[in-house]
Design brief:
Layout lengths: L1 E4 L6 E4 L1 H10 L8 H9 L8 E4 L6 E4 L9 E2 L1 H5 L18 H11 L2 E2 L14 E4 L5 E7 L2 E7 L5 E4 L11 E4 L5 E7 L5 E7 L8 E4 L7 E2 L2 E2 L2 H9 L9 H12 L4 E2 L3 E2 L2 E9 L2 E10 L2 E4 L2 E26 L6 E9 L3 E4 L2 E3 L4 E4 L8 E4 L2 E2 L2 H18 L20 H4 L4 H6 L21 E3 L6 E3 L2 H10 L8 H9 L8 E4 L8 E4 L9 E2 L1 H8 L1
Parallel strand pairs: 5-6, 7-8, 8-9, 9-10, 11-12, 12-13, 13-14, 17-33, 18-19, 19-20, 20-21, 20-22, 21-22, 22-23, 23-24, 23-25, 24-26, 26-27
Antiparallel strand pairs: 1-2, 3-4, 15-16, 27-28, 29-30, 31-32
């Protein structure tokens, strides 16, 4: 086990023996930044939600884009980027061995067309979505796969007919529901599995027709964890005015006060072996990772599934292997190192926004299925292998090899990215860290018009519009209209997301001395149990 000092935050961090073995196997140097700082840097390359209107540089149509008009990039709409009307190899250049490699890569980034939104070519009627795959009739959905008729949601997979949800799998007709799986018609709920027709559930499995319950298993017609007859339950439910916002804050506070009286397991997840982190399911030998499913031998990862032998990997997976310091790379991908947004690729280093299976490429931008490219210039296999080895030696001398992209290569301002959600900074702090800042975030103010369903957000005062599909959902589900804009609703949901941090704590059940690492900080009000004590309580 080694101790090191982070070159960014200057805090001491530990490099366990298993990590050292992994780095040796991949032939990469040990990290110089601590895990949180590495995660923060990767997140500055991820703009999910800050969208602008911008003209496509090829067809000249106005499109929605993650790049503000003042960004120094050539931006193509989705249709043009995926078309055969341009060739990314036309923007290549030779390697200049007298200069740092990152400076040369930035030059290629600035002149090579970038896709306006990170979406695949097959999305249907889902133009206002980003970082998505296989969508149909979706609106303002982010980081999602295989959604249909879903609005204002993030991290949703195989979700249908839902609004204002986050990190749900295989759910339908859900509203303001988070971290739930195989659920139907849930509202204001989270951390639940196989539940239906209920309001305000936390940590429930197989529960139906229940209201304000926590930690229940296979029960129906319950209110605050107490069983009632169907008639009694309906009488209780009738006392709550659920079709109006008038008492919503009161109901939320009532449920919050009840929920903290019910003990929780120290982490969210099931069917794991040898793990640490939170929101983990079906994993083996996964450490300091969050929102990770069906993965093995992974560390310092976030938002991945079906992944093996990967470290410092942020978002995606799907049969991915040997991913290291990678962001939004996946889809049967393997041997991806120091890359951002590489889809279906194999054996790539320092590539950016290559979306259709590049192989054996180094420091290239906006490739599709090209091979043996460096700085968007193509070589023979033999030429490429020799140049790659020489580049590793060159970047080792410049101090670049083994590092993720520098902040200067981040295509977004800090406050446009997901880093702002996990690691909020002031403008001064972001600039001091080497990032940029956007003073003019998108949004309009003072133009409310109820006849057009345009309102002022009660939180940030920004205007927002209720679209037709959204109004139809509220009417069908008897849900009162929201009073906050989608961004403020998203921020409110994210307060339930686990921080990228673990604390050493002891089980709070009297007489139990078991200790564990948990994402529940000591200052939180929840009663936290070890797994054995928790199972005794719920089963």
């Amino acid at each position: 086990m080694l101790q090191a000092t982070c070159t960014h935050c200057h805090q001491t961090f530990v490099i366990p023996d298993r990590d050292q073995e992994y780095y040796q196997r991949l032939a990469v140097p040990t990290p110089t930044k601590c895990p949180p700082c590495r995660f923060q840097l990767r997140l500055t390359f991820r703009n999910e939600r800050t969208l602008y209107q911008r003209q496509c540089a090829l067809c000249k149509k106005i499109t929605l884009s993650v790049y503000s008009p003042d960004k120094p990039y050539i931006v193509y709409c989705r249709e043009c980027w995926w078309s055969d009307r341009w060739n990314p190899l036309e923007y290549g250049q030779d390697i200049d061995w007298s200069r740092p490699f990152f400076d040369q890569l930035l030059e290629v980034k600035k002149r090579t067309p970038r896709i306006a939104l990170m979406n695949d070519a097959t999305a249907e009627n889902s133009d206002f979505c980003n970082h998505c795959y296989r969508l149909k009739n979706c609106y303002m959905v982010f980081d999602a796969n295989d959604n249909e008729n879903t609005l204002y949601s993030s991290g949703t997979y195989y979700v249908k007919d839902s609004v204002d949800c986050a990190y749900n799998d295989s759910c339908e007709l859900c509203y303001e529901t988070l971290y739930s799986e195989d659920c139907y018609n849930l509202k204001y709920s989270r951390d639940s599995v196989n539940c239906r027709d209920s309001y305000w559930l936390i940590d429930c499995i197989g529960v139906s027709n229940s209201f304000m319950c926590v930690g229940l298993r296979n029960q129906s017609y319950c209110y605050k964890n107490k069983q009632y007859t169907e008639a009694e339950y309906n009488q209780i439910l009738a006392k709550y005015q659920l079709t109006t916002r008038d008492h919503f804050a009161q109901y939320q506070q009532e449920f919050l006060e009840f929920s903290v009286t019910i003990p929780r397991k120290f982490y969210h997840g099931v069917r794991n072996e040898d793990i640490s982190g939170d929101y983990l399911m079906n994993n083996k030998s996964v450490y300091h990772s969050f929102q990770t499913r069906a993965s093995e031998n992974c560390s310092y990862s976030y938002g991945i599934f079906k992944t093996k032998d990967s470290y410092d990997y942020t978002v995606w997976g799907e049969d991915a292997e040997r991913m290291y310091e990678a962001h939004a790379c996946g889809g049967q991908a393997s041997d991806i190192r120091f890359c951002s947004v590489v889809w279906h690729g194999q054996d790539n280093d320092y590539c950016d926004q290559c979306l259709n299976g590049p192989k054996h490429c180094f420091g290239s931008v906006s490739l599709k299925n090209e091979q043996y490219c460096i700085l968007n210039k193509q070589y023979t296999e033999q030429e490429y292998n020799g140049l790659r080895q020489r580049l590793v030696e060159h970047m080792t001398k410049t101090g670049e090899w083994g590092q993720f992209f520098s902040p200067a290569l981040a295509p977004y301002a800090y406050n446009e990215t997901m880093a702002m959600e996990f690691f909020p900074l002031t403008k001064e702090q972001a600039l001091a860290g080497g990032w940029t800042w956007q003073d003019n975030l998108p949004g309009t103010y003072g133009k409310a018009d109820s006849t057009k369903h345009i309102f002022d957000c009660t939180q940030c005062k920004k205007n927002f519009k209720l679209v037709a599909a959204e109004l139809d959902f509220y009417e069908r589900q008897h849900i009162p209209w929201p009073t906050q804009c989608p961004d403020c609703r998203h921020i409110a949901r994210m307060r339930y997301r686990a921080p990228y941090q673990l604390w050493e704590r002891q089980c709070m059940r009297s007489g139990c001395d078991n200790r564990f690492q948990t994402a529940y900080s000591p200052e939180r009000k929840e009663i936290v149990y070890c797994e054995d004590c928790y199972k005794k309580m719920v089963y």
